[in-house]
Amino acid sequence: MKVNKKYILMLSDSEGNHAIGLSLGRMKLLLVFLIILLLLLPIGYLLYRTIHHGHSNYQLMGLKKENALLKQTFMSWENRLEMTENSLQDLKKRNQQIRMTAGLTVPDVELGIGGPEHQIQTIYMDSKELNQFELDLTSLESEVDWMKQNTIELDQIITSRIKEIAHFPSIRPIRKGWITSRFGNRTDPFTGVVEDHPGLDIATPPGTEVWATGAGKVKKINKTVIKNKGYGKYIVIDHGYGYETLYAHLSEIFVEKGQRIKRWDLIGLTGNTGRSTAPHIHYGVMVNRKYQDPENFILE
Can you give the pLDDT at residue 112? Predict the structure, then answer.
C-alpha cells in the first residue's frame, strides 16, 4: 500500500512564540515552488535590466562627454588652422610686395594647408594620433610665427634700404659738362704743385642748373665770396647714413640751411666764384666725413 507523504511548512517569529504550519503534498509543494520561481524570474529580469540600463547610461554619459571634448578639440584645431591659413596668405602677399619692391622674381607658389572638418561624426584616431596631430599643429604654428617675424625683419631692412637708396648721391650734379679734374692727386693750376684734389671738377657754362644728387637736408650754405680764395659760394647737403655732398663755386644758391630736399631738386646755378680759373662746379662726396671719389657713386 502506497503512502502519500506530507510536507509541513512552518513559519515562526524570531522568538518562536507563534508558529503557523502548512501541510502540503509533494505535488502541491512543487507547485508552490514553481509559483515562487515564476514570481522571482520577472523580478530578477527587471533588476538585471535596471542595473544594465544604469551601467549603459553611465557609459553613454562618458561617451557623450568624450565626444563633446573631441568636438571642442576639433573646433579649436579648425580655428587654429584657419588662422594659420590666413597668416600664410598674408605672408604670401607681403612676400610678393617685398619681392616686387626689391625687383625680384615673384614665384608662382600656392601656400595652403588642410585640416579636419567639424561635421565629421566618427573619428578613427586614437589618443596617440590625436596627441601627435596637436604636436604637428603647434610646430606648424611656430614655423608660421618664425616666418612672420622673418618677413617683418626683411620688410624693415628693405624699407630702410629703399630710404637709403633715395638718399644715396647717385646722379651727376649737372646734366651737361666735361670733367676737367678728377679725384686724387693733381697739379694745382695756381701753384703748379702736386696736391690732393678731394672732388670732381666739371666745366660748364655759368648759370647751368645744379641738382641735388640725393635726398637730404641742407647742412650749410656760404654766400660770402672772397676772390681767388676757397670754394666761393657753396652748399653742403647731409644725406644721412654717413653721406654728405659739396657743391662749390656757384653763382646762385636757391636753398636755405635746414631745408629738406629730394634728388633732382634745383639747388643753385654754376659759376666761377672763389678759387677758380673758369666757370665749373666742384663736386665732392664725403662718407663718414672722409672724401671719396664721386665717380664711384654716380650710377647714371
Answer: 45
Count of positions (residues) in the chain: 300
The answer to whether 166 and 299 have CB atoms below 8 angstroms apart is no
For residue 101, the enclosing domain spans 73-167
* H-run or E-run covering 267: strand 266-270
pLDDT in tens, 58-89: 777 777 777 777 777 777 777 777 787 777 77
Task: Note whether residue 258 is domain-resident.
Answer: yes
User: CA 5, CA 14: separation in Å to the nearest integer?
Assistant: 28
Residues 140 and 246 in one domain: no
Task: Provide the domain count of the chain.
Answer: 3
How confident is the model over 213-222, as pLDDT tens digits?
Answer: 999 999 999 9
Please check the confidence at residue 299 and state whether its pLDDT lies above 70: yes
Q: In 3-state terms, what secondary structure has residue 185?
A: strand
- Say whether both 151 and 237 belong to one domain: no
Q: What is the pTM of this model?
A: 0.56
59 and 146 belong to one structural domain: no
Q: Identify the CATH number of the domain in which residue 273 sits.
A: 2.70.70.10
